[in-house]
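Figure caption, in words: inputs first, then the predicted bound structure.
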Amino acid sequence: MSPAVTLIGSPVSPYVRKVLACCAIKGVEVKVDPISPFLGDDGFSKISPLRRIPVWIEGDFTLCDSSAIVQYIEETRSGPALWPADPKARAQARWLEEYGDTRLFDVLGWKLFFQMALKPHFFGGETDQAAVAHARDVELPEILDYLESVSPQEGFLFGEAVCVADFAVTAACMNLETIRVRVTADRWPRFAGLIARVQDTPLGNLNRLAGRLMRAPLEQHRDLLPEFGLAATETTLLGREVRRGPMTAN
Ligand SMILES: N[C@@H](CCC(=O)N[C@@H](CS)C(=O)NCC(=O)O)C(=O)O
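Bound structure (glutathione present):
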């Protein structure tokens, strides 16, 4: 039997939700330490050199990066496949996962969510309104146009079965609700439809959890996990001071 698995990181992070959704599909039980990466202690720096979440811990095996983690889950666990079987579809799925994790998250996560929510409420800084306006009105629509062009009218990106790419391109869009930016169905009908259908997969429950966590004080986060079918770890890597990782944007 494999050792118990701990996943470090708050499900507010789309990367953490991507991994948890894959665990749900494969039936892998994990305990979650729902810390913000900005509040990790020295132990967190040791296991995550970039001070990023998620981190997977399984006995003495520790692994950073959501893409490395989901690949590892696919290779070590039975159950439904996390990627399509056809090599070309599989390769495209990896590309869309990369696009979601990098370009989409750069704009949604760093330029919008960070500037509008984290910077003023968590770091005590001022929102850069010009950067927000450019990200929201120029960069984001370009990204959504591209995602619209690859989204199907029905089903998921690569057919009937949901895959990692569906999670990667939709999970971060959920965080948009908190900053009142919407993927509207009149302009991006296929992509809006995909987001809605992914809500009926294991990611939907995790998105609802993230919404709940975003409205709750940090000290309540561990206690909210069981309501959404997740167990919290007995110990935590939560520290006291706010710290930025070595690659954090302004
Ligand atoms: N490529 C990484 C990105 C993870 C990532 O950037 N996570 C964010 C949370 S949504 C984080 O930990 N940010 C803290 C930082 O960069 O300082 C992955 O796929 O796991």
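Residues 185 and 192 are 5 Å apart (CA to CA).
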